[in-house]
Specification:
alpha/beta; about 15% strand; globular; disordered C terminus; about 260 residues; seven-stranded mixed β-sheet; single chain; Spore Coat Polysaccharide Biosynthesis Protein SpsA, Chain A
Length: about 260
C-alpha cells in the first residue's frame, strides 16, 4: 500500500488592529480543511476586535498597548512557531485579501519548490481596476523594480500583506531585530533573500473598501523612504561594507539557491 503523506501543520496568523467589522468575514472564508490553527494578535484595538475573536474561538494574544504592525507580526510568528507550525500564513483580518486562497499560497511550500510565497496583487489583472489608488500603483511599480535589482529577483510585487513561510525560514532569519512599523515587511524579505531562501508568488485579487486598512499618501511616502533605507543598508551588508545584525542568520547553515 502506498505510504500516506502527512499534511503539514498550517497556522494562520492575523495581525489585528481595529478589525472588528471585517474579522468575521475573513475567518469564515478560511478553508478549515487546510488550516489547523488561527492565531490573532490584537495590537490594543479600541473596537470590538477582541469580542469577535472570542466569539470565533480564535487563539488570542493581546498587546498591552499599540506597538505597531511590525511588532504585531513578531508576536504572530513567535506564537505560531511555539504552537508547532510547519507553515505560517499571514492573513490580514481586514478582508482585503481573499482568505480562500490559503491552499494555493502554501502549495509551493508543500511541494518543496519554495520556502516563502507572496500573494501578489500585480501578477495578473489590474490592481487599479480593483480599487488601488493610481499613485500607490506607480510607487509600487517603482519600488518593486528597484527591489528586484537589489535582490536579483523578478517578482511582480513585494508590498503585499498576504504571505506564507516555511517554519525554517522564521527560525533562521532574525525577524526580531526588525522595525516595529510597516517596513518590517520589506526587512524580512531582505533577510529571506540574504539567507538564500527561495521565494515564489501567486496572483491574488484584492479588495479596496472603507473598512479595509489603507495607508494615506503621507504614510505611504514615509514607508517608501524607509524601504529605500532598507535596500541601502542591505546592499552595504551584502558587500561587506557595513555589517547589520538584522541581516545575520540565526543559524550557521545557509540555504543555497539552485
Amino acid at each position: 500500500m502506498p505510504e500516506t503523506v502527512r499534511a503539514p501543520k498550517v497556522v494562520v496568523v492575523m495581525p489585528a488592529y481595529n478589525a472588528g467589522r471585517t474579522l468575521r468575514m475573513t475567518y469564515e472564508e478560511l478553508p478549515k480543511d487546510t488550516v489547523n490553527l488561527v492565531i490573532l494578535v490584537d495590537d490594543a484595538s479600541t473596537d470590538a476586535t477582541l469580542d469577535v475573536a472570542r466569539q470565533l474561538g480564535l487563539e488570542i494574544f493581546v498587546h498591552d498597548r499599540n506597538y505597531g504592525y511590525g511588532a504585531n507580526q513578531k508576536t504572530c510568528y513567535a506564537e505560531a512557531l511555539r504552537a508547532g507550525a510547519e507553515i505560517v500564513v499571514m492573513v490580514h483580518p481586514d478582508y482585503q485579501y481573499d482568505p480562500r486562497l490559503v491552499p494555493q499560497i502554501i502549495e509551493p511550500i508543500v511541494s518543496g519548490t519554495a520556502d516563502v510565497v507572496l500573494g501578489s496583487r500585480l501578477k495578473t489583472g489590474s490592481a487599479i481596476q480593483q480599487g488601488m489608488p493610481w499613485w500607490k500603483w506607480v510607487a509600487n511599480r517603482c519600488l518593486t523594480g528597484l527591489e528586484n535589482r537589489v535582490f536579483g529577483l523578478r517578482l511582480s510585487e513585494y508590498h503585499t500583506g498576504y504571505r506564507a513561510f516555511r517554519r525554517e525560514v522564521l527560525e533562521t532569519v532574525n525577524f526580531g531585530a526588525n522595525s516595529d512599523g510597516f517596513v518590517f515587511d520589506q526587512e524580512i524579505v531582505a533577510q529571506v533573500v540574504g539567507a538564500g531562501f527561495r521565494i515564489a508568488e501567486i496572483a491574488v485579487p484584492t479588495r479596496y473598501f472603507p473598512e479595509a486598512s489603507s495607508a494615506s499618501f503621507v504614510a505611504s511616502t514615509i514607508y517608501g523612504l524607509r524601504i529605500l533605507a532598507v535596500l541601502f543598508w542591505y546592499t552595504l551588508h551584502r558587500k561587506g561594507l557595513r555589517r547589520s545584525r538584522r541581516f545575520d542568520s540565526l543559524r550557521a547553515r545557509y540555504h543555497k539557491l539552485p
